[in-house]
Amino acid sequence: MDTEFTTSQPSTHALAIVSLILSILGLAGVLPLVGAIGGIITGTIARKEIKANPEQHSGEGVAQAGIILGWVGIVLGIALCILIFVGILLFLVPLSWTIGPIETFPFPVPVP
Known about the structure:
Helix content is 68%, strand content 4%. The chain is mainly alpha-helical.
Protein backbone atom coordinates (compact mmCIF):
# COMPACT_ATOMS: atom_id res chain seq x y z
CA MET A 1 0.00 0.00 0.00
CA ASP A 2 1.50 3.28 -1.13
CA THR A 3 -0.04 5.99 0.97
CA GLU A 4 1.25 9.51 0.90
CA PHE A 5 0.35 11.96 3.56
CA THR A 6 0.62 15.51 2.42
CA THR A 7 0.35 18.24 4.91
CA SER A 8 -0.31 21.57 3.42
CA GLN A 9 1.04 24.56 5.21
CA PRO A 10 -1.50 27.28 5.89
CA SER A 11 -0.95 30.28 3.69
CA THR A 12 -0.27 33.74 5.05
CA HIS A 13 -3.51 35.67 5.18
CA ALA A 14 -3.69 38.27 2.41
CA LEU A 15 -5.11 40.94 4.72
CA ALA A 16 -2.15 40.48 7.07
CA ILE A 17 0.20 41.32 4.22
CA VAL A 18 -1.99 44.25 3.16
CA SER A 19 -1.97 45.49 6.76
CA LEU A 20 1.81 45.47 6.93
CA ILE A 21 2.17 47.19 3.55
CA LEU A 22 -0.38 49.91 4.40
CA SER A 23 1.25 50.58 7.76
CA ILE A 24 4.71 50.86 6.19
CA LEU A 25 3.35 53.24 3.55
CA GLY A 26 1.76 55.25 6.35
CA LEU A 27 5.04 55.52 8.23
CA ALA A 28 6.95 56.38 5.06
CA GLY A 29 4.65 59.33 4.43
CA VAL A 30 3.14 57.98 1.22
CA LEU A 31 -0.29 57.46 2.84
CA PRO A 32 0.14 59.19 6.20
CA LEU A 33 -3.21 58.78 7.91
CA VAL A 34 -5.01 56.49 5.46
CA GLY A 35 -2.23 53.91 5.53
CA ALA A 36 -2.07 53.79 9.32
CA ILE A 37 -5.83 53.45 9.77
CA GLY A 38 -6.09 50.93 6.93
CA GLY A 39 -3.25 48.91 8.43
CA ILE A 40 -4.98 48.75 11.79
CA ILE A 41 -8.34 47.76 10.31
CA THR A 42 -7.03 45.10 7.92
CA GLY A 43 -4.67 43.71 10.56
CA THR A 44 -7.50 43.35 13.05
CA ILE A 45 -9.70 41.58 10.49
CA ALA A 46 -6.84 39.28 9.51
CA ARG A 47 -6.09 38.34 13.13
CA LYS A 48 -9.73 37.47 13.78
CA GLU A 49 -9.91 35.30 10.64
CA ILE A 50 -6.58 33.60 11.44
CA LYS A 51 -7.72 32.78 14.98
CA ALA A 52 -11.06 31.48 13.68
CA ASN A 53 -9.45 29.23 11.05
CA PRO A 54 -5.79 28.50 11.94
CA GLU A 55 -5.55 25.42 9.71
CA GLN A 56 -6.27 27.51 6.62
CA HIS A 57 -4.45 30.78 7.38
CA SER A 58 -1.25 31.84 9.09
CA GLY A 59 0.47 35.19 9.51
CA GLU A 60 -0.79 36.38 12.86
CA GLY A 61 2.62 37.93 13.53
CA VAL A 62 2.48 39.82 10.23
CA ALA A 63 -0.99 41.11 11.09
CA GLN A 64 0.18 42.11 14.57
CA ALA A 65 3.15 43.98 13.07
CA GLY A 66 0.78 45.85 10.76
CA ILE A 67 -1.43 46.82 13.68
CA ILE A 68 1.51 48.02 15.79
CA LEU A 69 3.06 50.01 12.93
CA GLY A 70 -0.34 51.53 12.20
CA TRP A 71 -0.65 52.78 15.78
CA VAL A 72 2.93 54.06 15.69
CA GLY A 73 2.07 55.97 12.51
CA ILE A 74 -0.99 57.55 14.13
CA VAL A 75 0.95 58.54 17.26
CA LEU A 76 3.79 60.02 15.20
CA GLY A 77 1.30 61.90 13.02
CA ILE A 78 -0.40 63.41 16.07
CA ALA A 79 2.98 64.31 17.60
CA LEU A 80 4.04 65.98 14.36
CA CYS A 81 0.82 68.02 14.24
CA ILE A 82 1.35 69.15 17.84
CA LEU A 83 4.97 70.11 17.12
CA ILE A 84 3.95 72.11 14.06
CA PHE A 85 1.20 73.88 16.02
CA VAL A 86 3.55 74.72 18.91
CA GLY A 87 6.23 75.85 16.46
CA ILE A 88 3.80 78.18 14.72
CA LEU A 89 2.68 79.61 18.06
CA LEU A 90 6.27 80.12 19.20
CA PHE A 91 7.08 81.87 15.94
CA LEU A 92 3.99 84.06 15.59
CA VAL A 93 3.47 85.19 19.19
CA PRO A 94 6.94 86.79 19.63
CA LEU A 95 6.59 88.27 16.13
CA SER A 96 3.34 90.00 17.14
CA TRP A 97 5.09 91.43 20.22
CA THR A 98 7.76 93.11 18.09
CA ILE A 99 5.42 94.56 15.46
CA GLY A 100 3.52 96.76 17.87
CA PRO A 101 -0.04 97.97 17.58
CA ILE A 102 -1.76 97.56 14.26
CA GLU A 103 -2.84 100.82 12.68
CA THR A 104 -6.10 100.91 10.81
CA PHE A 105 -4.98 103.56 8.31
CA PRO A 106 -1.76 103.50 6.33
CA PHE A 107 -1.45 107.29 6.73
CA PRO A 108 -2.00 109.66 9.63
CA VAL A 109 -5.55 110.97 9.92
CA PRO A 110 -5.77 114.62 10.99
CA VAL A 111 -7.76 115.19 14.13
CA PRO A 112 -9.88 118.39 14.03
